[in-house]
Amino acid sequence: MFLSLFLKGIVIGLAVSVPLGPIGILIIQRTVNKNRTSGFLSGMGASISDAIYAVVAGFSLTYIIDFIRLHQLTFQVVGAIMVLVLGIHIFFKDPVTDLRKYRRKGSSYFQDLLSTFLITFPNPMVVFIFLAVFASSGIVFQMDQPSLAFAMVAGVFLGANSWWLTLTGLVSLFRHKFNLRVLWWFNKVAGVIIVVLVIVTLILTMVEHFTA
Q: What does the alpha-carbon distance between residue 75 and residue 88 come to, in Å, rounded to a whole number?
């Protein structure tokens, strides 16, 4: 049972992380502009957020889920604004200045992890994704069986990080081909993609909310 839940968690973690949204673009951008470690730790920040929401969904913590439902639009708007600001910031980043800064001070890996966590955590839709997946799989955590819950959450965390490790590894293989001019354009394209994705998502969210 423990191994079965652990393997299911890995699959779920991969399924939740693989679609490349704004966070995926951000992780690619950090891998290209900094290094593979920076990109991977940024992905780990998102994985920690996923693991927390997996716990909430698995134990079906009613009070938390009701609070999220009640303030769902607020969470989504705040999260969208944070990612939007991030996209604009990336668009205006100067790779030359960044390279000088990182060579002089080094990369703050903890900041990379923390910033991605703070960006992804305000997205409450993740908990409902886990609720849907767990319900379809017949998975319910029991308070008197914490080891089984740990197996599932550990699997989700490992699955998500496996994807970020793979993605940053692939990007890192071609990183040496990026000169300063390509990095400059990459920042522009990544920034625009993130901004467009956020705006489209926010518009769809608002339309869905006010037509419901």
A: 20
